[in-house]
Amino acid sequence: MLLSLPSVDGAVVNVDRFSQMTHPDQSWWDEPAMRSALARRDVGQIFMLLNRRHGMTQRRIAELAGFAASEVYEITRGRQVMAYDVLVRIAEGLGIPRALMGLGYGTEPTQEHHPEPLPLGEPEHRKHFIAALAGFAVGGSPDIEAWLPRPGEQSVSVPEVVNSEAIATVREVTQRHRELDAAYGGGSCRDSARGYLAWASCLTRSRCQTPDLSAGLYAELADLHNLVGWMSHDLGEHMEARRHLAQGLVYAQKAGDSTLMADAYYRLGRVSIHQGNPAEALHLFQLGQIVATNSNCLTSVAILHANIAWAHARMGNAPAMRDSLARARDEIGRADTTQAPQWTRFFCEPADLEGMSGVVHSALARYSQYRKQHAALALTHAGRALERRTETSRSGAFDHVTMALGYALLGEQDKVAPHTQAVLDAARHVRSRRLLDRLSDVADVIEPRQDKQLAEVVTAIRARVAA
């Protein structure tokens, strides 16, 4: 069965009406409508113009661009194509001059030998790594090159001079990927973000006309590295996450941006706490707190206090947990959220502090002496978070994890299953290994209980995690 493509003016064109074309004529790329679509990287519009104006069939477009025919149809219907390497593949397959899409030229790449970065898998490896990172928090410039991610081999053309428009492009790309990550998980767009990062990183080889532009470029690169590191963590690739976050820390220092340095430390701490090392996480959060305080950014200070509370809760230190959580509430209450840096905006939503409070209390509730009181508090906060969230997101799925864990800790077995099912449903469209790992914590709590309904819940969780 042949599919039809929607035309530029809304009419439907049957692909059988046109003869099979071999390759696009180079003159097609100079047409004004095509030029505009290429400049916007609007792949759906490019495909429609090839079909409607030049008679290329859906099948032939797919063959040249490296897609299945059904994918071409989906793209013309609105599916976005953002991954840098995919855009390069389309340009090469269709014979599009890459400059028209703002893509680099693949002339002979310079072959450089880049030794493998130092390992980070073992606690002893991370001890030296974190000790080096601590130097940034006190104004030093430690050499951490040996741990940083290695550049790719693909040669990319870069402008001779970086202007404000190029920096704005990096900012917009980062924000778009941040939104996708929050809604659909790191797996939804990490590869795309890495492709853009490869291009953006090459801008450091260009000349910035003013110190402010140079600082702006390094700040945007730091933000993008931090985001790619966070996405990698969300996918369970913790070593890669640490390398990108360390690079983000280096660039943030070059930019003189303490809030982005705090962001890198915060996310490094989150990797450690997820891997079951709250003491290591606490150290990293405290380093972040130093630079966040120096930046006078109350939203970043609040984020670090809330996560310090989580580390204390994981270690069973109730007084320190309560103090840090109270400080987080106080700081966010005093912050001018309209001026908050972009990476901190998630915490400006009332639902997020409630959700984080639920996570903190549920961590303390794992200790038997605190179970009843703090499991109940976890349920209260997570319930409020769910009420306040305005749209489906990864954060909402984590709130359901907290609810399930709270009910499991209290032994209210009949209330566990609806929340675990909500997480399993969310996992169909949220690509996050971190979410599944946290759901496994619920299974660990309820597995020893010989209850038929809970046994079915555990089976469902284990099956999804293993898939």
Overview of this protein structure:
Helix 16 (371-388) packs antiparallel against helix 17. This protein has a two-stranded antiparallel ribbon. Strands 3-4 form a two-stranded parallel sheet. The protein has three domains: 4-100, 434 Repressor (Amino-terminal Domain); 123-150 and 159-348, Tetratricopeptide repeat domain (Serine Threonine Protein Phosphatase 5, Tetratricopeptide repeat); 349-467, Serine Threonine Protein Phosphatase 5, Tetratricopeptide repeat (Alpha Horseshoe), CATH 1.25.40. Helix content is 63%, strand content 2%. It starts with a strand and ends with a helix. The chain has 467 residues and is mostly helical. It has helices at 32-39, 43-54, 58-65, 69-76, 84-94, 123-137, 164-184, 190-201, 211-234, 238-255, 258-274, 278-295, 298-314, 318-334, 350-364, 371-388, 394-410, 416-426, 433-446, 452-466; strands at 4-6, 12-14, 161-162, 207-208. The protein is globular and about 75 Å long. It is built from 20 helices and four strands. Residues 53-101 form the HTH cro/C1-type domain. This is XRE family transcriptional regulator.
